[in-house]
Amino acid sequence: MPEPQPIGRLVDSLGVEHRPEDGELVLGAVVLLKVMEPDGEVSMRAAWSPGLSWMERVGMHQAAVQSDLPQRGGVPGE
Is 47 helix (H, G, I), strand (E, B) or coil? Predict the structure, then answer.
């Protein structure tokens, strides 16, 4: 099995960015990865910051889901 490597370069190469607000301090991260296996199968993987509890990770997943859902009752195209 290959050795783990820092994920920064992988994420950077995909163009993922975050622009922190003034005074904002990033305390942890959960990264979801879509990967293609050597046999061509596509699957999902997750990686996270050391020290995040399972509860924090689940909460971050749920917050991501909520922020990705389209707004209900809005005007189409907004």
Answer: strand
Question: How many angstroms separate the CA atoms of 63 and 78, rounded?
Answer: 21
7 domain-assigned? no
What range does the domain containing 30 cover? 26-68
Are the beta carbons of 46 and 30 closer than 8 angstroms? yes
Q: Give kind and range of the element (H or E) at residue 78.
A: none
Contact 51, 64 (CB under 8 A): no
* Domain annotation covers residue 38: yes
Q: Is residue 58 a contact partner of residue 18, using CB atoms and an 8 Å limit?
A: no
Write the pLDDT tens digit of every residue in 7-58: 888 899 999 998 999 999 999 999 999 999 999 999 999 999 999 999 999 9
Q: How many residues make up the chain in this entry? A: 78
Q: Note the pTM of the prediction, 2 decimals.
A: 0.72
User: Does 54 fall in a domain?
Assistant: yes
